[in-house]
Amino acid sequence: LKMNLELRKIHIVDVVFSNENKIENNVLKLNKISLSELIKEDKRIKNVDFDIAKPGQSVRIFPVKDVIEPRAKLNGEIFPGVFKDHMDEAGSGITYVLDGCAVVTTGPIVGFQEGLIDMSGPAAEYSIFSKLLNIVMIITKEDYVDPHEHEETVRLAGIKLAKFIGEIGLMYDTYESVSYEWKSIGEKFGQYPGLPKVAYVYNCMSQGLLHDTYFYGRDTKHIVPSLITPLEVMDGAIVSGNCVSPGSKTTTYHHLNNAVIKELLKKHGKEINFMGIVLNPLMVTLKEKYRNCMLSVKSIEMLGAEGVIISQEGFGNPTTDLMIVCQSLENRGIKTVIITNEDAGIDGMSESLPDSVTEAKAIVSTGNSNATIMLPKMERVIGHLKDIEKTTGGNVDSIQEDGRLLVEIHGIMGSHNLQGNTYLSAETV
User: Is the distance from CB of 105 to CB of 134 less than 8 angstroms?
Assistant: First the structure.
């Protein structure tokens, strides 16, 4: 195995609607009619509209389902396994990235699960998505479409649009090129003998009830922990299908730009020898948690890792997966760092985590999701603000008489992202 991936990053400085689809002077031009025709190929979609939200504008997008970065392969298929039966392994060749913009899908698919993005004001300081040029897709489904099909419809529409927009970049020749190489485990093992060997346990939500992740198009409920490479992740091998709470949801954008992977690659060959990744599905039953823990730890030992980073997704019972994997690794002498948020109540005085083990000695916190924040009224809302009443972090009293909004940090998309791709953290006092 030897993989070489080149990312060609086109820095998008503006997005405008136009009569054509092209990039000119780093401005992305989109034709609404052609986008509508593309999305309405799925007959479950009754209607679709598009909007653009830019950093600094007085705009609130709500309720947000997923955020996806537009990418495309020069040869081959981005997001392999999603649209075609035949698929090549992701992580090789040339991938175009439209940096600085994103596709945002909206829609109240199931209560309590969708969050907001504010393009300015206090909430903008809690979300990486407020800094992006957002192409917002508002989908109205046909009446017969149930919540599971609704989720699938919106998920596939978002991926399809991100792929289509990404392909506009294939015609553009002004980009920043970044190249990555990934060798076989045998080669890697002997590569940096003086550096500690570090691996990454990549937890992904796999609980059913619209709490899902897709790996090469396959629902991760139906896989066991798998050895994967970081380059596959950058090519869209992992897609979010999650309706978990917005603050801790790993969107597809987060997967494509996994912060843990970026840091590990940056330190590889300098401070550490990055050996590989184990993708660990977070399941519902205790038996499955123990099985996946055992298989994840076995794979980590096969990689020869001396240190491990584990990132979390969701909250509640996934904390058990996080803790038992950490405990098993520590008991084998493998130093382990875990990343998680805290649900410590509005006053910060509640138990931070629903499960813990004494072996969890090194914890990176992405902040208290229950802390509340008063948000100003926005001039423009893309979507339906009343749905805040049934959103995680919101309630029937969220909308104030003067139009302001009282929410928990939980309700802001990606506010305490558990891969650490966030502005929030914690400090010891």
Answer: no
| φ and ψ at residue 149, rounded to 5 degrees | -70, -35
Structure tokens at 288: 């499955």
Give the integer Cα–Cα distance in Å for 138 and 336.
42
Residue 41 contacts by C-beta under 8 Å, 6 or more apart in sequence? none
Residue type, 26: N
Residue environment code for 381-413, b if the CB has 16+ CB neighbours within 10 A, otherwise e? bbbebebbebbbbbeeebbeeeeebbbbbbbbb
3-class DSSP assignment, residue 409: helix
Do β-strands 211-215 and 238-242 pair in parallel, antiparallel, or remain unpaired?
antiparallel
The predicted-structure confidence for 221-241, as pLDDT tens digits, reads as follows: 999 999 999 999 999 999 999
Q: Are 7 and 155 in contact (CB under 8 A)?
A: no
Structure tokens at 82: 């999603």
Residue 90 · residue 236 · CB < 8 Å: yes
Residue range 101-140, pLDDT digits in tens: 999 999 777 765 678 999 999 999 999 999 999 999 999 9
Cite the active site residues: 243
Length of the chain (residues)? 429
CB 246 within 8 A of CB 254: no
In this structure, the strands spanning 93-99 and 372-375 are unpaired
CA 164 → CA 30, 155, 210, 303, 352, distances in Å? 11, 14, 25, 37, 42
Q: At what angle do helices 147-168 and 32-39 cross, to 10 degrees?
A: 140
Asked if residue 422 has pLDDT above 90, the reply is: no
- Residue 336 near residue 358, CB atoms below 8 Å: no
Nearest alpha-carbon partner for 236 in 212, 215, 206: 215
Could you give the 3-state DSSP secondary structure of residue 245?
A: coil
Taking the CA atoms of residue 150, residue 62, residue 347 and residue 203 in that order, the dihedral angle to the nearest 10 degrees is 40
Do 52 and 17 contact (CB within 8 A), yes or no? yes
